[in-house]
Amino acid sequence: MSVFSGMSRPMKAAGVALIGVAIVAAVIGGITALGGGDGSNEAGPSGTPTSPGSSSAPPSTSSSASSPASPSTSANPSSPTPPPPSTPPSGQPTSAAPGQPGGDQQASSKWVTVRVFNNSTIKGLADRAAEDFRGSGWNVNEVSNYSQGIIPTTTAFYRPGTDEEAAAKQLAAEFGIKAEPRFEGIQSASPGVIVIVTKEYQAGHKGS
Asked: Per the confidence metrics, is the pTM higher than 0.85?
């Protein structure tokens, strides 16, 4: 006797449909169970394909190839040594710093006004001395006579603490004469070195 006996025709149709659905579900479940056993066919993560036998670690490189060559720290015996600081040849003057004795200091003293006075009976002696001084670069702007007393020896007179002092001493050393501060009789005279020439002055004579 059939399981559908006693049922109406619509009920029979519904039962057949349910049985068919159950059969189809059983078939699909079996196929799924058979095909999903291992995951060998699943795709790996995107961008990281692998192949059998390959290693994911990057190839090792030699430390000597990857590290830059370090410079040698040993001294090279053949390398030239720097030359010593050059020094001016013997006998050549060196430039002096401002305010220090030297060529520049001496040259700057020659701008000081120099006046030459004759204190002897030798005519034109002051003129000859003035020409000597000018020939050496001195700024002689007056030549005259001095008759207010007797000066013992040719002397360059200056006012202490002024540019006249350095100029008078330089001129005296250059021409072998004396250099002294001004005495009372010429204290109020115009600024500048005053050279009073006496009879012992030798024209063109310079100190050694």
From this structure: no
